[in-house]
Amino acid sequence: MLKEERHQKILSEVALHSRILLTDIADDLNVSVDTIRRDVKELDKKQRLKKVHGGAVSLGFVSHNPQTEIYALEEKQTIAKKAAELVKDGSVILIDGGTTCMEFVRQIPIKKNITCFTLSLPVALEMMNKPNAEVIFIGGKLFKDGQMAIGASAINNLSQIRLDYSFIGTGYVDPIYGLTEFDWDIVQLKKAIIKASKKTVLLSISEKFNSQQRYKTADINAINTMITELDPKDSKLSAFQNLDIHIL
Known about the structure:
By secondary structure, the chain is an alpha/beta fold. It folds into 2 domains: 3-58, Arc Repressor Mutant, subunit A; 73-247, Rossmann fold (3-Layer(aba) Sandwich). Helices cover 35% and strands 23% of the residues. It has 9 helices and 15 strands. It has helices at 3-17, 22-29, 33-45, 73-84, 99-107, 121-127, 152-158, 184-195, 238-241; strands spanning 19-21, 50-52, 55-57, 92-95, 115-118, 134-137, 141-143, 148-150, 163-168, 172-174, 178-181, 197-203, 215-218, 225-227, 246-247. The strands form 4 sheets. A 7-stranded parallel beta sheet has the order 6-5-4-9-12-14-15, with helices on both faces. It has a 3-stranded antiparallel beta sheet with strand order 1-3-2. Helix 1 packs across helix 3 (33-45), helix 2 (22-29) crosses helix 3 (33-45) and helix 4 packs across helix 5 (99-107). The longest helix is centred in the first third of the chain and has 15 residues, at 3-17. The radius of gyration is 18 Å and the shape is globular.
């Protein structure tokens, strides 16, 4: 495979999943990890992504600057607008990190009187622009790659909260395998979020459908509502339509 083709594959995977592991891409492309590491270094120098230990992240994932180029922005804005309709005055909610959740925050009406918990620094900063929202940052060990709190302290803090709704993203979603990630710490955090929530809303572009990773966050039925950019009756959602989840 030509270097240009490898670069395109890396950029596509980073854009879709926000974070990738060098080992996964090396396996997919049947090349050495050293080759992928060199590719990622080159793409980092060109400011196409950000190199991190053992992998790479999208620039949009580590920035809350609205001018940063976001993958599938139109689709994520469609999801965000649907999600914003679920936010009611007086609600206690949690908003996850990631680019789709950031678009959701931007769509929440400025006059909404809500309490918003988050583990994401970019989400917390964006929510500060909502004068009627009480914003509570759940502290813990700072995960620099994603600019969010993780670890035992964050999980313990979540155990003390009862949320009306949590709005979460995922790297990978499948109707059979459910929600999965490659980062064990992130999985434990999202498990705690789901446990603390009366209802959990998944925000996901359809391009992530039928994908899976190493560690399982939850069965798909642990999600009460799934919001995509598609019409709920779209054939791409057929595998989810017979499950016990609401699709928007």
